[in-house]
Amino acid sequence: MLSREVKDPRTRNVVISRVSMTDDLRHAKVYVRLLVDDESMRAEALKGLAKASSMLRSGITKAAGLRYAPALHFFYDAGQDDVLRIERLLHEVKTEREKKTS
User: Fold this and answer.
1) Domain 2-77, what fold?
2) pTM here?
3) I need a surface site. Which of 27, 29, 44, 102 has the fewest CB within 10 A?
């Protein structure tokens, strides 16, 4: 729905990584990532999603057969960034250990 319905160019490289909803299904935290990651594009993508929120709400409500349209709250998912940073640090430690043993 995001790639087909939303025409805002700021949302072009957005991928939804996860969604968590409240028990009453009235609020959804939508975590997104960018295919082309650039910090300056993150804020713009979130603004574009916020602007398209009402259209997305109605589409989700119809597609999921919900009684109420959940309020959508968009967040950049930095979890993957943390994983990549830790993997890079572990690789550096491994490389240093290999240099010392050679």
Assistant:
1) GMP Synthetase; Chain A, domain 3 (3.30.300)
2) 0.76
3) 102
